[in-house]
Structures are given as structure tokens and as C-alpha cells.
């Protein structure tokens, strides 16, 4: 396969940045998207050019490091897939592919396609700890959890904090991420003592970081590689209304 | 957004039911309009109820616009650098057109008040006989009024389809099953209100009401 890439190049946080075109030839359809970029970078390095910087780590879809908007869609055209698990067979010979970083004020570009997602850490920190005794693992049946709740909490816990929800949101909101964390802990008995303060503090940190407000447009869940459902945002809203009523 | 929106939806339902009285006849429709002015009597003096309702609705509209504006400004600030290539992923037409749709609806409401409440833009403007005003409004010769009215009502329909879904979610609807019900309610209310509101001008246009 021969492709034309239009990649966002930005030297540093202060640089203005621009889209730059590259031709890549002899791409195997079995390559992952990141391997295709590796190939481009090897060539750029040999030619004495600066390679394209992008985040990546596990390359098996579980770490949440890779973060690219491919042809206008976070993580590219394939549903429930991170960029690293996207394969070149999804594209056709001769395609032009636009590659951009996540765009959000809360996620400033560090270089090329790498953004700083520290704002998510701030939200997690604001959520604080849960009151659970540490030490040896507790007896599994000492705190019964209904199966349905355990499943739903687990589904929410599969969030890998990649930030695709923010990248896709027309409002630049990080509500799906925040809601996934609220749902994950709010459904389990271990998450109850701090349930009220958690939702209030995490939402405050979310707004403080410069994310936009949620209008339930649903773009986030459409691009989420883990399929976090939009209903989690309803759980966050309900927890927030309850917590606000108690203060 | 959600609380003011719910107030406005409740008003839309009652207003539509009032409109449908036109199919009962001129006397019934006019009588309904006069009754609205004496609603709450003798506790409330003449037209007081109407003014209270207008105050509540104005409050709701202003609150709704204020919330929408602050959300839009936050959204603009949250993404200072735009995407060069932006795909429509989920692409719910209703969700994407909430803001401009809202502006169209506001312009329509202003026109609608000048037309059928104050009468400034109505060809008959007979306050004692609102039935005559409505019939004159949607006469076949004034097809452009009917066209604008239809477009405005359809915008309201789209606005409601996403708006009702979104309001219920904001108020804490949180299960998958509830979400399916929620989408069905939003679509159902939007379709019923559109049909109810559009039945009046088309009844006049086809001569069913004259």
C-alpha cells in the first residue's frame, strides 16, 4: 500500500504547528497504525529529519498511551479499538490520512502528536482514596456485591484514561472519563463512604482543568475504545444531585 | 438547562392542547382564549394568571439561554485549536443543531408573539376573536407564513428529541433500559408535539378549518 499522510508537526508547546505531508510506500496491510508510523520515522531519521513524536506503550490496547485523531476520529475509523490495535487493512491503497493530536485546552500539545494528559491525574487525585483496610487480601465473600453491580462497575473500570472522549467531544468535555471513575467506585460497597465528596471534588477538578461542559451529545462513547456507556454520565449526575442536596 | 427545559416542554404540551380546540369550532376556541384571561378568578384578578405564567416562562427562557450560552462559551474555551479534519462520528443531527436550532426557535417565538399575542404582524389582529386571526394567518395566499411556521416547528421537534433525552440524563437517568425508554419518550414527545402544532396551519390551508 502507498499512502499520503498529513501529520501535525509542532516543535514544542510554544510552536504554532502545522500539517505536513509525507508519502509512505510499501505499507503492509498487516501493520498496525503505529508500525506504519515507525516505518515513516525510521526513514525520517535516516534522512536526518526529526521523527514524528507520538505516545505509545503497551501496543496491545490496554495502557491508554496512544492518542491520535485519525481522519477526524479519535483512534481512527474502527470502533472499540485503540490506535495501536488499528491495522492498515482498514485503509485502502492511495488513501490520504490526516493525523492530529487530541485537541483540548486541558491537554496542551508537548510535541507533534504528544499531549499532556496530566489534567486527568488531577481529577483522579481530587477523587481521593477509599476507606479500605490494607494488608492481606480480605475474604472474597466478606463484602457481598450483587453480580449485576460488579459487572457494571467492571465495565466502567475498563476505562484506560486515553482521553479519546475529550478529543471527540464537541464541547471538549472530560465527562465520560470522570463518570467512568464515579460509576466504577460508586457501584461498589467499598466506594460508599466517600461517594458524595468524591463526585463533588472530581467535578470541581474537571471544571478547574478547563474541560468543557457535557451536553450529552454522545460522541465520547462512540469513539471510546473500551465502550464506556453514556449511562455512566447519568450515574455521575445523580450522585452529584444527591451530594448537592446533602450539603 | 434541564430544569428550565422541562418547564418549557410542559408549556408546549398545554399550549398544543389549547391549539387543538380550533377543531372544536370558532366559539370554543375563542371561549378558551377568554377563559385563559380569567383563569384563577375570583382569587386572581382579570389576566393575572396569564401574567404570572408569562413571568415564569420568561424566567425559564432567559435561564435556558443563559445556561446554553455559558456552555457554548466553555466549549469554545475548551478547544482553542480546532481540528483540521473533523469527522461526524455519532452524528445525531438533533444533538449537533441544538445551539443554532435554539436561535431559530427564539426568533420564531418573537415573531409568534408579535403575530398572535400583540397582533402587530397579523393581518386581522382582532383580539376578541383569536380564531379569525389564526385562519387569516395561514390563508393559502400567505404560504410563506405557513412555511416559516412549519420550519420553526420542525426545529422545535429536533430540539426536543435531543433536549428531552439530555434533560432526563442530566436529572440522573442512569440505566441502559432507562436510556432506551428515555430515547423513545424524547422521540415520541417530539413527534406528537410536531404533529399537534402542524395540524392547525395545515387544517387552515386545506380548508378544514375556516
From TrEMBL, chain A:
Protein name: Succinate dehydrogenase
Family matches, as SUPFAM superfamilies: 2Fe-2S ferredoxin-like, alpha-helical ferredoxin
Alphabetized UniProt keyword annotations: Iron, Iron-sulfur, Metal-binding
Boundaries of every 2Fe-2S ferredoxin-type domain copy: 1-103
Cofactor: [2Fe-2S] cluster; [3Fe-4S] cluster
GO biological process: aerobic respiration; respiratory electron transport chain
Keyword Metal-binding: yes
Gene behind this protein: sdhB
UniProt family annotation: Belongs to the succinate dehydrogenase/fumarate reductase iron-sulfur protein family.
Pfam families according to UniProt: Fer2_3, Fer4_8
Residues covered by the 4Fe-4S ferredoxin-type domain: 150-179
Coiled coil: none
Recorded GO MF terms: 2 iron, 2 sulfur cluster binding; electron transfer activity; metal ion binding
Superkingdom to which the source organism belongs: Bacteria
InterPro entries named among the record's database cross-references: 2Fe-2S_ferredoxin-like_sf, 2Fe-2S_ferredoxin-type, 2Fe2S_fd_BS, 4Fe4S_Fe-S-bd, 4Fe4S_Fe_S_CS, Beta-grasp_dom_sf, Helical_ferredxn, SDH/FRD_Iron-Sulfur
From TrEMBL, chain B:
InterPro entries: Cytochrome_b-558, SQR/QFR_C/D
SUPFAM superfamilies per the UniProt record, alphabetical: Fumarate reductase respiratory complex transmembrane subunits
Gene that this polypeptide is encoded by: sdhC
Protein's recorded name: Succinate dehydrogenase
Keywords of this entry: Membrane, Transmembrane, Transmembrane helix
A cellular component term, taken from the record's GO annotations: membrane
Ranges that cross the membrane: 50-73, 93-114, 143-164, 185-209
Lineage, uppermost ranks: Bacteria, Bacillati, Actinomycetota, Actinomycetes, Micromonosporales
Domain of life: Bacteria
UniProt-listed NCBIfam families: sdhC_b558_fam (TIGR02046)
Amino acid at each position: 500500500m502507498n499512502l499520503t499522510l498529513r501529520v501535525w508537526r509542532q516543535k514544542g508547546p510554544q510552536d504554532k504547528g502545522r500539517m505536513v505531508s509525507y508519502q509512505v510506500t510499501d505499507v503492509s496491510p498487516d501493520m498496525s497504525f503505529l508500525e506504519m508510523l515507525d516505518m515513516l520515522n525510521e526513514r525520517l531519521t535516516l534522512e536526518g529529519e526529526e521523527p514524528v513524536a507520538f505516545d505509545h506503550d503497551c501496543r496491545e490496547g490496554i495502557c491508554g498511551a496512544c492518542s491520535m485523531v485519525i481522519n477526524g476520529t479519535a483512534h481512527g475509523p474502527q470502533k472499540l479499538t485503540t490506535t495501536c490495535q488499528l491495522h492498515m487493512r482498514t485503509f485502502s491503497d492511495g488513501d490520504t490520512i490526516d493525523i492530529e493530536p487530541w485537541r483540548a485546552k486541558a491537554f496542551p500539545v508537548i510535541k507533534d502528536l504528544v499531549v499532556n494528559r496530566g489534567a486527568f491525574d488531577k481529577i483522579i487525585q481530587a477523587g481521593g482514596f477509599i476507606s479500605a483496610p490494607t494488608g492481606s487480601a480480605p475474604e472474597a465473600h466478606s463484602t457481598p456485591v450483587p453480580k449485576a453491580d460488579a459487572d457494571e462497575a467492571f465495565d466502567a473500570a475498563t476505562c484506560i484514561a486515553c482521553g479519546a472522549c475529550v478529543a471527540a467531544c464537541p464541547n471538549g468535555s472530560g465527562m465520560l472519563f470522570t463518570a467512568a471513575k464515579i460509576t466504577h467506585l460508586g457501584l461498589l460497597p467499598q466506594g460508599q463512604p466517600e461517594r458524595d465528596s468524591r463526585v463533588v471534588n472530581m467535578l470541581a477538578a474537571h471544571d478547574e482543568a478547563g474541560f468543557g461542559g457535557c451536553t450529552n451529545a454522545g460522541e465520547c462513547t462512540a469513539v471510546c475504545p473500551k465502550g464506556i456507556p453514556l449511562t455512566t454520565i447519568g450515574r455521575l449526575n445523580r450522585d452529584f444531585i444527591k451530594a448537592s442536596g446533602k450539603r | 438547562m434541564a430544569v428550565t427545559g422541562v418547564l418549557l416542554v410542559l408549556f408546549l404540551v398545554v399550549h398544543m392542547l389549547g391549539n387543538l380546540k380550533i377543531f372544536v369550532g370558532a366559539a370554543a376556541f375563542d371561549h378558551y382564549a377568554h377563559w385563559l384571561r380569567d383563569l384563577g378568578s375570583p382569587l386572581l384578578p382579570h389576566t393575572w394568571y396569564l401574567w404570572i405564567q408569562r413571568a415564569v416562562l420568561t424566567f425559564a427562557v432567559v435561564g435556558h439561554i443563559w445556561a446554553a450560552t455559558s456552555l457554548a462559551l466553555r466549549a469554545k474555551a475548551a478547544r482553542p485549536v480546532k481540528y483540521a479534519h473533523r469527522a461526524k462520528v455519532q452524528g445525531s443531527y438533533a444533538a449537533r443543531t441544538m445551539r443554532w436550532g435554539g436561535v431559530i426557535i427564539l426568533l420564531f417565538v418573537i415573531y409568534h408573539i408579535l403575530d398572535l399575542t400583540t397582533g402587530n404582524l397579523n393581518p386581522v389582529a382582532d383580539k376578541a376573536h383569536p380564531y379569525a386571526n389564526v385562519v387569516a394567518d395561514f390563508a393559502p395566499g400567505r404560504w410563506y407564513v405557513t412555511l416559516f411556521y412549519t420550519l420553526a416547528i420542525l426545529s422545535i421537534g429536533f430540539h426536543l428529541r435531543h433536549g428531552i433525552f439530555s434533560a432526563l440524563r442530566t436529572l440522573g437517568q442512569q440505566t441502559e433500559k432507562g436510556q432506551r425508554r428515555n430515547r423513545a419518550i424524547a422521540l415520541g414527545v417530539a413527534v406528537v408535539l410536531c404533529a399537534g402544532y402542524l395540524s392547525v396551519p395545515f387544517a387552515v390551508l386545506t380548508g378544514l378549518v375556516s
